[in-house]
Amino acid sequence: MKLVKNTADQAGAHIRSLPVHEQVYQDLRSRILFGETAPGQAVTIQGLAEALGAGMTPVREAIRRLISDGALLFQGNRRVIVPTLDIAALEQLVFIRKSIESELARRAARHVGQDFVDRLSEIDAALDAAISQGDVPGYLRLNYQFHMALYAQAQAPIMAEQADRLWLRFGPSLRVVCGRFGTQNLPDRHKDLLSALAAGDEEGAAIAVTQDVTQGMEQIAAVLEIKE
Amino acid sequence: MKLVKNTADQAGAHIRSLPVHEQVYQDLRSRILFGETAPGQAVTIQGLAEALGAGMTPVREAIRRLISDGALLFQGNRRVIVPTLDIAALEQLVFIRKSIESELARRAARHVGQDFVDRLSEIDAALDAAISQGDVPGYLRLNYQFHMALYAQAQAPIMAEQADRLWLRFGPSLRVVCGRFGTQNLPDRHKDLLSALAAGDEEGAAIAVTQDVTQGMEQIAAVLEIKE
DNA sequence: CAGTGAAAAATTTGATCATATTCTGCCCGC
DNA sequence: GCGGGCAGAATATGATCAAATTTTTCACTG
């Protein structure tokens, strides 16, 4: 007898069962985003299909999407790896992030409400807790969540998607940063940002985000310098 | 019947036999880029596989990449269409293009040589010829080629790729613009750009590109206003 | 005799397809 | 208008073929 496809099998929740290729994509995506993959690591279709218990076609699709996102790199021959960041790449990422994310902050400040500031503060509090507990995965996820929540508020989906995609490029290097510095020395400009938002200060928000981006990228740059 | 399999191209060997999924991707990409697809048009896997004489898997992969590029839109159900631009989307594209492409121009100006200015002038001359002959496809291709050549010169592959991707989003609207205005009223700032580049004037190049972008996008905006 | 290097076999992995299954939207009878 | 098929399209699998890498073999030189 055939098993019914395990759709929405989680405890009665009516969660729309996502297509396999989408699940694989999300899975890989978050692994890359939160530093669970090492730069330079090879990615094989059949290996992933085996590991995830999926067929080759959905895995292949997920990989193609990630390549298009810049999260994976298709080498001339037909090998796929997690790309290694170099200084030149990082410098470009810094420029683009500053341009887009500062504008997103500006626009978010234009649409803030008290409920939004509260929600963001909540995430930031959880983030601080994760830092003080040395919870690296928690820190990474919450930091990402903080920024994405901000960008969603900007009412500019194309710009937000663009910014989102950039995070995939430095994700794999974050593990290295945290391995090097730990969580204690991870300063951010979230407090500045929150007060600017609460005051509806567009430029203040833009400056806070720019500084936050600069700080984060400088830490990655520091690690890159060491390795070369 | 259909000859898809180029098993071993004996005689030639010049032609690099690209994978089918890559061919399909390039094909679809240029159709979208040069306005050969109408906004809102549906894209079906089986339809394309039939039309191109390819299997479903490569077509599927190409479509996923294009979706990730923002060139196609995956609607919640499993329909894929060519997205329709609205004013809000266009406004975001303008901002991002201005930020990134002006910086690319700045960096290109930093690396110019006489040979590069000559090559760009050549493309621009061909472009003018296409305009005066009313050759719309030629105009679109040469204009794209002009900008991509400039961005390649900037030695900033990530930023260039980012800019490249954005073109896919307004490509489908270009046909409408040309249908509306013809080729005669397609002014550009390429001459300004060329003199700035020849003089090594970074800011001049940045300004020229910014104005070029503004002009092009305003024409699209004008068409969008009419349709709404 | 040991070590080097290249050629060939073996293995791993990617690319493609044909086919089976599942889902969506639509149409028809009630 | 509404619910149950029905057609068609998307999703997913495994088989098969091709390409690239790795390993093995083996002849040749120092």
Question: How does this structure look, described?
Answer:
The structure is a homodimer of 228-residue chains. Chain A is mainly alpha-helical. The first copy, chain A, folds into two domains: 62 residues, Arc Repressor Mutant, subunit A, CATH 1.10.10; 141 residues, GntR ligand-binding domain-like (Four Helix Bundle (Hemerythrin (Met), subunit A), Up-down Bundle), CATH 1.20.120.530. Chain A contains nine helices and three strands, in the order αβααββαααααα. The first copy, chain A, has a three-stranded antiparallel β-sheet. Chain A is globular. Chains A and B meet through helix 3, helix 4 and helix 7 of A and helix 3, helix 4 and helix 7 of B. Chain B binds a DNA duplex (30 and 30 nucleotides) through helix 2 and helix 3.
In short:
The structure is a homodimer of 228-residue chains. Chain A has helices at residues 20-33, 45-52, 56-69, 87-110, 114-132, 136-152, 157-181, 190-198, 202-227; strands at residues 42-43, 73-74, 80-81.
Mean pLDDT of chain A, nearest integer?
Answer: 88
**What is the 3D shape of chain A?**
globular
List low-pLDDT spans of chain A.
1-15
Number of strands of chain A: 3
Structural class by helix and strand composition of chain A: mainly alpha
Separation of termini of chain A?
58 Å
* Share in helix of chain A: 55-70%
Regarding quaternary structure, what we see is homodimer
Radius of gyration of chain A: 19 Å
What is the topology, as strand order, of the major beta sheet of chain A?
Answer: 1-3-2
Elements of chain A, N to C (H/E)? HEHHEEHHHHHH
Number of domain units of chain A: 2
User: How many helix segments of chain A?
Assistant: 9
* Main beta sheet strand tally, sense and closure of chain A: 3 strands, antiparallel
CATH architecture of the largest domain in chain A: Up-down Bundle
Say what the CATH topology of the largest domain in chain A is.
Four Helix Bundle (Hemerythrin (Met), subunit A)
User: Beta fraction of the residues of chain A?
Assistant: under 5%
The CATH fourth-level homologous superfamily of the largest domain in chain A: GntR ligand-binding domain-like
So what's the CATH class of the largest domain in chain A? Mainly Alpha
Q: Biggest interface in this structure?
A: A-B, 28 and 28 residues
